[in-house]
Amino acid sequence: MEYQAKYITPDIKLSSYKDKFFKSDIMFEHHMLIWFISGETKIVRPEGTYQFKKGDIFLIPRNQLATIINYPSDGLPHKTVVMHLTTEWLRNFYAKREVKAAKADTAGIRHYANHPLLESCLSSLIPYFDMTNLPNDIADLKLTEAVSILRAIDADIDNTLANFEEPGKIDLAEYMEKNFMFNMPLEKFGYLTGRSLTTFKRDFKKAFAATPQRWLTKKRLDLAHYQLVEKKKKPIDVCYEVGFENLSHFSFAFKKQFGYSPATLAS
Predict the structure, then answer these.
(1) What is the 3-state secondary structure (H, E, C) of 81-103?
(2) Does 125 share its domain with 11?
(3) Distances (CA, A) of 220 to 69, 178, 223, 242
(4) Are 238 and 265 in contact (CB under 8 A)?
(5) pLDDT at 93
């Protein structure tokens, strides 16, 4: 993977992947506002799979799990402008406006298509990535502009951006049934369900009568079998969407579980 990034600040970057594809399972610590310049992305979330391409603008809320699969397209690299909307910056922004979230918003990715105001704001950043002497306040001005536009075009966005609560203790079984396809360290699953690692493992065994790794592998393989048989998907696509890191490991585990390879179902 040939990855390049240019920064205005650590929170505003121009990101480019030039290889065939890049896949990662991620927990987003900050809200991310993304504008697509070229390439394509598939984002797998519990509520569904999203496809984004050139011109698309979307916001991924913080503390959510996702599988990100980036592709070049039309001979061009996967290139995006990314704004990280950190909790610290947003606290300062909303403190001046005395706005509080009316409720905790658990919605998924927010898609703004190629909204002209957002596109104008984000595209105006391009010249700054090649400058060395930037105005001191340019990053703050651009973040303020972007969030102000979001608030003007999305009536519910304050419930996402002005919500500063950290994950509390939630139903572990329900959460894991929705998020098992994400290949995260157990510490991250513990954090997102409001538990220490020790408490997470203890509660997990109570809920499922199995170790996390054994249960996760079986759930991912069962989902893979369903995707291959019922959805007629290709093994390479299924492999990454259900939480495996490479096709050879997926094929080995699948054959061990079911007695035949995923390629058998695809032929």
Answers:
(1) EEEEECHHHHHHHHHCCCCCCCC
(2) yes
(3) 17, 12, 5, 5
(4) no
(5) 95
